[in-house]
Amino acid sequence: MRHYLLIALLLLSTACTPPTAQDESMQVQSTKTPPAATVAPAAPAAEFASRYTHLPAEAADVLARIDECLYFSGEFNGDGSARDKEVSARMDALGCAGVIEQIPAMLQKYAATHPDVITALKAVFSND
Q1: Residue 58: phi, psi to the nearest 5?
Q2: Per-residue pLDDT tens digits for 84-116
């Protein structure tokens, strides 16, 4: 669980650093095309989504998905049981494998205009 926190904090500090002219000139557009059968992640449960109604919809969705993914990661036992299969299916539907990768773009988009997004992200990864 701590590795998620470390990754998130690293991404948070990187994303909150303003880009320099050199950084912007070195950006390369991805030529990779997404698979044709890309499925949108499942919507987070209402319990998780209701925590972020004061934030922009895109940020609220990412934060609620992170919340729910962290919750389900604690439910997974790794014993191959029926419950593990349910948890794994829900995590796949939520897109948990890629949700952390969305944090830098979200922070870059909302850091200056919605500081509550950063506050909410820190709260998600706090141990409280």
Answers
A1: -65, -45
A2: 999 999 999 999 999 989 999 998 999 899 999
Q: Which DSSP state fits 44?
A: P
Q: Residue 77's pLDDT is what?
A: 87
pLDDT confidence of residue 19: 53
Least Cα distance to 99 among 127, 126, 59 occurs for 59
Cβ atoms of 75 and 83 closer than 8 Å = yes
User: Can you say how many angstroms the Cα of residue 48 is from the centroid of all Cα atoms in its chain?
Assistant: 13
Q: Angle CA(39)–CA(44)–CA(50) in degrees, nearest 5?
A: 150
Place of tokens 């972020």: 52
